[in-house]
Amino acid sequence: MATSTQQPAAPTAGAPAPRRRRGSRRFSGRDKLVLGLMLGVPTVLHVALVWLPAVLSVVLSFGKWDGIGGVSSIKWVGADNYHQIATNYPPFWPAVHHNLYWLGVLLLIGTPLGLFFAILLDKELKGSRFYQSALYTPVVLSLALVGFIWTLIYSNDQGLINNAFGSHVDWLGNPKVNIWAVLVAATWKHVGYIMVLYLAGLKSVDTSIKEASSIDGATEVQTFRYVVFPALRPVNVVVLVVTVIESLRAFDIVYILNGGTNGLELLSVLITQNILGEASRLGFGSAIAVILLVISLTFIITYLVNTFRREAES
Amino acid sequence: MTRRFGPTSPSPREVGFRVDRRTMLKGIAGAGALAAVPTLAACGGSSSPSGSSAPASSSGGAAASAGTGSAGGAGAAKGTITFGSNGSDAVPKAAYQAVADAFKAKNSGADVKINTVDHNTFQEQINSYLQGKPDDVFTWFAGYRMRFFAAKNLAGDISDVWQNIGADFSDAFKQASTGDDGKQYFVPIYNYPWAVFYRKSVFEKGGYTVPKTWDELKALATKMKGDGLAPVGFADKDGWPAMGTFDIINMRVNGYQFHVDLMAGKESWEDAKVKDVFSHWAELLQFSEQGALGRTWQEAAGNLKNKKSGMYVLGSFVGQQFTGADLEDLDFFAFPEINPEHGTDSIDAPIDGLMMAKKPKNEEGAKAFLTYVGSAEAENTYLKTDSNDVAANKQADTSGYNALQKKAAELIGASKNIAQFLDRDTRPDFASTVIIPSFQSFIKNPKDIDGLTKNIQSQAKSIFAS
After folding, report:
1. For residue B334, which of A274, B18, B53, B161 sits 20 to 30 Å off, Cα-Cα?
2. Between the CA of residue B377 and those of A300, B95, B218, B383, what are the distances in Å?
């Protein structure tokens, strides 16, 4: 849609010169080739490695297959897998709930805590380097290791908490308690991650605007609320996305603690239990995977729509 | 505070074998396993099996022409035999190596190359492994899991090997090595019994006697409770140990055949017989350690060792958690009789052994090796290194057994029927995705037996129908 004869508007003082529309430039053949390769190769790879398997999983979710023999041995059963999951698979609904708890806790507790620590560290307190490392350490550890560490803390007969306080809480075995116990561990890890993201964001906020607002008589809290926080908007978006992804793909920690059963069911674990290993219920597992994909897509699409809308507005 | 925490893997010095549970030892062992990526041609669960190998039913390839006159064990094997092993712990690894070395010493023209893969990984990838490029021989388990792969045409028929070694095995072992089509697919090496373990000193001090019947067991448990012990140790955090308790009560109440049929999906879980098992189990739960779902079997074994609990139903691998004087003090008895009709004629005593690939590269060598593995000599060699189990071969030398091994051998010998354990006797998808959560919910709420069995049955119906 490039208008070939563009009438450059007379630049008015102060107003930015209109940007030339992208795409109106003529690319030489070589440019096109380079661009084509640079965009094409990743696109092909992405489609082949991400979207093709995803689509195949959707297809597979309408069949029953134990993975032995060729594709011809797949028994097509229509939506039966979905029906079974919803009505005849006790771990499914708890798993959905637990994924939502996970999201809620990370979003409402983990993320604000991370922001809070980031603000404290941004104050350049004494020993802030030490605190920074201490809070960030869990992020570096693999979740499998985190799971192991918390096993030592929560263990019923030999764990740290029950021995130190003489309590008799079955932290990991009681299905009413264990999801929250695990969420503490997950939050512990998540906080460090969020803290680092916000810290980077805070460091990039210009100190002059903070000074300006305090000269105008704003309190510390007001400064943060009306000046600093809006400036962190790009970081907020990243944090939101990271949090959602983290809570949907939560897996390793519960898998280490008790294999993701008995109150620690998560969708990712159910997929693993059904597809990997000897169970080999490929169709059934794929159906759960498709459900997880749909949930993820809802978040992703909402986020993308928002971003594009904002870009269009600006 | 004790040093031994939950899910650490037992130290290599003591572990003879890892019970074949994928759920087991998720802890450090699992993390470590990721580092030790197997160099198997057929690993990688992501490769779609559809493209990797032609359906095995395609009438015999070039490899399947070795004929029947297999090597009679000595001096005939040639070439390299590949051996896929799940014995990733130090002890079984050394034991398999010793067997392979002894075989090589007898067959100068042959070489056995062992590819050891982490135990759980091996199990989880077995489907793609067998459809890809499996080793000539590989470790596996007797029972349904063996018959399943035989029926799916993924295992090699070794009936001719059995013609050479058959005389050394009891009928129970031969039965456990036989597929649905009446041919043999499996060479047993060792097994280990499930029983009720206790400390002799605890029994002496409390003046307890070994219970022979269900009522005596309950009376003893009541007495123990009065003495401040947790009568029956119990742990089911990993989901599989409780299967042992269900199995043994089921076989005591309904007998071996009912166990087999129930596992095969031929009996309904809503049958009154099954409900009877659960109501017996509910009685036992009153005497069992509380908080079982947050406890690993290692921790429960620790409680038995520290004299906090009086008895513990587990496989003989419980001995891995005992050393020195504690091990001397450990003893066991067969689970008491419930129904006089069946007495104590059945136990769980899972058998581990070897199988042959459908189309081994070196069939003659593989059969020669399997013939050797089935010999008393090879089993002696294996058990010299790994002393937690009992040899499957009748002729094996038992003079080197420790007291527990001797007793285990007696118990197995005295049992008319040997079951393989719930998750080896039924479909793996049923055991892992239905039974584990169901038993755990039973432990949480033993009152709703009707709802529970109804639930299991409706899932069983949908799984066994496929």
Report:
1. B18
2. 63, 13, 44, 10
When pLDDT is averaged across residues A283-301 and rounded to a whole number, the result is: 92
Choose among B92, B110, B133, B90: nearest CA to B372.
B110
pLDDT of residue B287: 97
- Whether B293 sits inside 8 A of A170 (CB atoms) is yes
Fold of B194-348+422-465: D-Maltodextrin-Binding Protein; domain 2 (3.40.190)
Q: Is A161 on the interface with B (CB under 8 A)?
A: no
At the top level of CATH, the class of B79-192+351-395 is alpha beta
- Please list, in sequence order, all residues whose beta carbon lies within 8 angstroms of the beta carbon of residue A162, skipping any fewer than 6 positions away: A155, A156, A168, A169, A171
Q: How many CB pairs under 8 A join A and B?
A: 143
In A, residues 66-125, which contact B (CB 8 Å cutoff)? 66-71, 75, 84, 88-91
The better pLDDT of the pair B59, B395 is held by: B395
> By CB neighbour count within 10 A (0-12 exposed, 13-18 middle, 19+ buried), where does A41 fall?
exposed
Whether the pLDDT of residue B160 is over 50: the answer is yes
Contact A155 B27 (CB under 8 A): no
Cα–Cα distance between A81 and A63 in angstroms, integer? 8
pTM of the model: 0.79
Looking at chain A from residue 252 to 271, which residues have their Cβ under 8 Å from any Cβ of chain B?
Answer: 255-256, 258-259, 261-262
Give kind and range of the element (H or E) at residue B84: strand B79-85
More confident residue, B428 or B274: B274
- Give the CATH H-level superfamily of domain A80-313: MetI-like (1.10.3720.10)
The pLDDT tens digits of the residues spanning A112-149 come to 999 999 999 988 888 888 998 999 998 898 877 888 89
pLDDT in tens, A196-237: 999 999 988 888 988 899 899 888 889 888 988 888 888 888
**Looking at the predicted structure, is the pLDDT value of residue B36 above 70?**
no
On chain B, the residues whose CB falls within 8 A of the CB of A147 are 27
B192 versus B21: the higher-pLDDT residue is: B192
Please tell me the distance from the alpha carbon of residue B226 to that of residue B224, in angstroms, as a whole number: 5
pLDDT tens, residue by residue, A165-206: 988 888 988 888 999 999 999 999 999 999 999 999 998 888
Question: DSSP class of residue B12?
Answer: T
Looking at the complex, report in whole angstroms how far the Cα of residue B54 sits from the nearest Cα belonging to chain A: 8
Q: What backbone torsions phi and psi does residue B373 show, to the nearest 5 degrees? A: -60, -30
Q: Chain B contacts of A148, Cβ < 8 Å? A: 7, 27-28, 31
Per-domain boundaries in chain B: 79-192+351-395, 194-348+422-465
Q: What does the pLDDT read at residue A20?
A: 54
Checking if the pLDDT of A52 tops 90, the result is: yes
Tell me the chain B residues in contact with residue A168 when contact means C-beta distances shorter than 8 Å: 291
Q: Is A170 on the interface with B (CB under 8 A)?
A: yes
Instruction: Among A67, A145, A175, select the one facing B127 at the smallest CB separation.
Output: A67
Of A68, A157, A168, Cβ closest to residue B131:
A68
In sign, the C-alpha dihedral spanning B408, B243, B268, B262 is negative
Is A152 at the interface with chain B, CB within 8 A?
yes
What is the gyration radius of the CA atoms in chain A, in angstroms? 26
**Helices A178-203 and A143-154, axial angle in degrees (round to 10):** 130
Would the CB atoms of A178 and B23 count as touching at under 8 Å?
no
Query: From the list A68, A88, A152, which residue is nearest B127 (CB)?
Result: A68
What is the DSSP track for B156-193? ---HHHHHHHGGGS-HHHHHHTB-TTS-B-EEEEEE--
Which chain B residues contact residue A259 at CB under 8 A?
A: 23, 26, 238-239, 436
Residue-wise pLDDT tens digits, B295-338: 989 999 999 999 999 999 999 989 888 888 999 999 999 999 99
